[in-house]
Each structure stands twice: as C-alpha cells, then as structure tokens.
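Please, structure for the following, as tokens.
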Amino acid sequence: AWESQRRSRISAAKSIDVQVSNLKIDKQGERATASFRQAYRSDRHQSTNTKTLTFAQQDGQWRIVGETSQ
C-alpha cells in the first residue's frame, strides 16, 4: 500500500533531487523508526521537512509500513 501511494506521487516528476541529514534510527524488536531532515526538489515541487519512516520486519525483511512528514 505505501509503495503504490509513494510511486504515484513521484512518477510524474522529470527530475528529483533529495538530500537527507540528521538521521536517527530507533529499533525495538520487529519494528523500527527512522527520523531525518529531508530537502526535496523536483521540476514540480520543492520542500524541506522532517520525515519519520516506520518499518516492520516481515518474512525476514524490513518493510516500510508508514511515513509521516512535519
């Protein structure tokens, strides 16, 4: 679900540049969160914000299950 939503948001851009800084990772069991500052620029949009990705371990692999942006 997350992957298809994300793909539809970025597929229309012709060029994308993403800079990531201040990465912090917190792992607790089979769940983890990664928080970071993201500077995003494309031919259609430009923004800088703090993102948090939520991961869950499924079948031995880490998968993104959520994303928030502030």
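The helical segments are 2-10. The radius of gyration is 13 Å.
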